[in-house]
Write a structure and sequence with these properties.
Organism: Streptomyces coerulescens
Order of helices and strands: HHEHEHHEHEHEEEHH
Distance between the termini: 57 Å
Pfam families: SIS_2 (PF13580)
Shape: globular
Largest sheet: 5 strands, parallel
Mean pLDDT: 92
Structural class: alpha/beta
InterPro entries: RpiR-like_SIS, SIS_dom, SIS_dom_sf, SIS_GmhA/DiaA_subfam, UPF0309
Family: Belongs to the UPF0309 family.
Protein name: UPF0309 protein ACFPQ9_44525
């Protein structure tokens, strides 16, 4: 019998998933990073969207020290995070047909931009429609999802398709159906989700790839510095002045 604690088991599970995405998604990570770098080099803008807890990984790459200043959050009122009351409303909004199109119509997204869409299941109407509508605008789409859901669940979009079916690049987080890594005989439900850890790591790997790709082309990546280090605010102010027309979270 193993003497490992639940904490040990969770860390082992998370590390195992991180090793899988590092090894199995390396080509897709490179492709996604290159796509973002191509967009920046062509004067395009970058956006990220995630609903519910998937929004955590989207927010992690927006206005982030060490991250690309050009990454903007595409927000859907009531669907970003769990601050909406009741929290279950956010889950319900993900299943509403037509919502994504309305959001995109009032967003700054345009032909030549890139959009990262994060949805663990990839089955709800909101992320599927958002990917479809964004591509129709000429926007490149990077989807971050667990591909396993497409073979073990039913799509909630009228097309019967999933997020993964409408992306230029797909990053598979390898998260198992249900997003819970641990079980115990004494606990009736599986527990300890790892999707946030893995998805955030995947996206930071993509961002690192994008920054390095820009540098190899002789383009200085528009990176932000921490405001908590000396000179950080002055650095960021210069970045904002240079790229202000492509940064929307300051308006």
């Amino acid at each position: 019998m193993s003497d490992s604690t639940p904490a040990d088991q969770f860390f082992d599970a998370a590390i195992g998933l991180l090793q899988r995405v590092r090894d199995e998604e390396a080509e897709n990570i490179e492709a996604a990073g290159t796509l973002l770098a191509d967009t920046v080099a062509a004067d395009g803008r970058l956006f990220a969207f995630g609903a519910g807890h998937s929004s955590l990984a989207a927010q992690d790459i927006v206005y982030r020290a060490g991250g690309l200043a050009l990454m903007n959050l595409l927000a859907v009122p009531g669907a970003v995070g769990v601050d909406v009351m009741p929290a279950t409303l956010g889950s319900a909004l993900e299943r509403v047909d037509g919502l994504a199109s309305v959001v995109l119509d009032s967003s700054p997204l345009r032909d030549g931009d890139a959009l990262v869409i994060i949805s663990l299941s990839g089955r709800n109407a909101l992320p599927v429609e958002m990917a479809m509508s964004a591509r129709a605008l000429g926007v490149k789409v990077i989807g971050v999802t667990s591909v396993a859901y497409a073979s073990e669940t039913t799509s909630r979009h009228s097309s019967g398709t999933y997020l993964k079916d409408h992306c230029d690049v797909v990053l598979d987080s390898k998260i198992a159906i249900g997003d819970a890594e641990l079980t115990l005989d004494t606990i009736p439900a599986p527990f300890a989700p790892a999707s946030t850890v893995v998805t955030s790591a995947l996206l930071q790997a993509v961002m690192a790839t994008a920054a390095a790709s820009l540098a190899t082309r002789g383009i200085e990546p528009p990176l932000l510095r921490s405001g908590n280090v000396d000179g950080g605010h002055d650095w960021n102010r210069r970045v904002f002045e240079t790229y202000g027309d492509r940064i929307f979270y300051r308006q």
